[in-house]
Specification:
- The protein has 2 domains: 7-130 and 281-301, 3-Layer(aba) Sandwich (Rossmann fold); 132-278 and 310-338, Dihydrodipicolinate Reductase, domain 2 (2-Layer Sandwich), CATH 3.30.360.10.
- The chain has 10 helices and 15 strands.
- The protein has helices at residues 16-27, 42-49, 61-66, 82-91, 106-119, 134-145, 169-188, 275-278, 280-295, 304-323; strands at 7-12, 32-38, 56-58, 72-75, 96-99, 124-127, 151-159, 192-198, 214-220, 225-231, 239-246, 250-253, 261-263, 266-268, 326-328.
- Strands 12-11-7-10-9-8-15 form a 7-stranded mixed beta sheet, with helices on one face.
- Helix 6 packs across helix 7 and helix 7 crosses helix 10.
- Bound molecules: nicotinamide-adenine-dinucleotide.
- Nicotinamide-adenine-dinucleotide is lined by residues 12-18, 38-41, 44, 61, 76-79, 81, 99-100, 127, 129, 175, 275.
């Protein structure tokens, strides 16, 4: 494990998130250094590695992990590439921070759970970074504190300026609402048991063939109702909001807190363009907590079980999208290994 030089991290995938995590590990985080980057696009990896002393570029994630300089792995390749990288890292007993989704479906998630169980110790943290956002942390504290009573409902809104080309209806669930799935499970401390997806007449500004926005309803094990508005092309910025309705009070987060400027007969503020800006602090805290725990020889944060449970809820959501009505979530019994 890391000597004075810090935890040697291999970053797999150097696209939007991977490049941002490389910058973060290099410029913001203490106790870690970027020892290797890997991307199937050789030039992308090479040009990023060239900006960092002591960083080697690879096209093969396994070769990056095999480098003697690597103590831990941050996976930021697309979801379908995660399983192979996770299995490779577990085979080398390397701690991993894996961007969401852990893998795209429950069958592959179960293979990852089995590989981690066979290894005999937890090695995987899944990148559900809202658990590190200061407002979400305060909301969790208020709900756990008990003063407000039991949470009865949770209203959530997740709006994007626009989605990248090729984004599909089911990705609105598996890639975007996946964050609200994890936030719901974590905030309320219970599983989601059923999902129903409703679709208003689509916005005329949505890409052809896409049903955008969508309205998703979760039922939880203790009977709370949770709704999520997912809007992929709201056209004005990136907005994530939540309101918990409890027996004795309500809590709202995500209302813009920035400077309110009055000028030229109007007042207003800034809406961030995307998650990189909106959740910058959360990503910083997430990666710092991962580095610190890894250096202590611990694994904290969302586990592979959380990655699997989120995939199961998303799978039910896609069934409801395609078939209509309410789809029940099918979960295996939680292994004792995951506490
Ligand atoms: P991206 O397309 O910008 O980048 C992906 C990179 O991975 C590309 O450079 C691609 O060439 C590379 N790649 C593809 N297959 C690979 C493989 N087998 N091995 C190594 N590299 C490979 O995608 P992105 O937006 O950066 O998303 C990456 C991951 O981050 C996804 O899992 C996505 O869901 C997740 N993500 C998380 C958040 C969050 O808020 N936590 C936000 C956006 C994206």
């Amino acid at each position: 494990m890391p000597a004075q030089r810090g935890l040697g991290v291999a970053v797999i995938g150097t696209g939007k998130m991977g490049a941002d995590h490389v910058r973060r590990l290099h410029d913001v985080i203490s106790g870690a250094r970027v020892a290797a980057v890997a991307d199937i696009e050789a030039e992308r990896a090479k040009s990023l590695a060239a900006t960092i002393d002591g960083c080697t570029a690879y096209t093969d994630p396994a070769a990056a992990m095999a480098s003697g300089e690597v103590d831990a792995v941050l996976i930021a390749s697309p979801g379908p590439a995660h399983e192979a990288a996770l299995i490779e890292a577990l085979g080398r007993d390397l701690p991993v921070l894996c961007e969401k989704p852990m893998t795209p479906d429950t069958a592959s998630c179960l293979r990852v759970l089995e590989a981690e169980r066979r290894l005999g110790r937890r090695r995987i943290q899944v990148g559900f970074m809202r658990r590190y956002d200061s407002e979400y942390v305060k909301l969790k504290g208020l709900l756990d504190g008990g003063e407000l009573g039991r949470a009865l409902m949770l209203h959530q809104r997740h709006r994007n300026l626009a989605m990248p080309p090729g984004f599909t209806d089911d990705m609105l669930i598996t890639s975007s609402v996946a964050h609200e799935v994890d936030a719901t499970r974590w905030l309320l401390g219970q599983e989601i048991v059923a999902v129903a997806v409703h679709r208003p007449a689509p916005s005329s500004l949505a890409p052809a063939g896409m049903n955008d926005p969508q309205f998703v309803l979760f039922e939880t094990a203790s009977g709370a109702l949770v709704d999520v508005e997912i809007f992929g092309h709201c056209g004005y910025g990136y907005q994530v909001q939540a309101e918990a309705v409890c027996e004795r009070g309500t809590v709202r987060i995500g209302d813009e807190q920035g400077p309110r400027v009055s000028v030229d007969g109007r007042w207003g503020g800034h809406v961030p363009p995307d998650y990189v800006e909106r959740f910058e602090d959360a990503y910083d805290r997430e990666v710092q907590a991962w580095v610190d725990a890894t250096r202590r020889g611990e694994v904290t944060g969302p586990s592979a079980w959380d990655g699997y449970a989120a995939a199961a809820v998303c799978e039910a959501g896609v069934v409801s999208q395609r078939e209509g009505g309410r789809a029940e979530v099918e979960l295996i019994e939680r292994p004792a290994f995951y506490g």
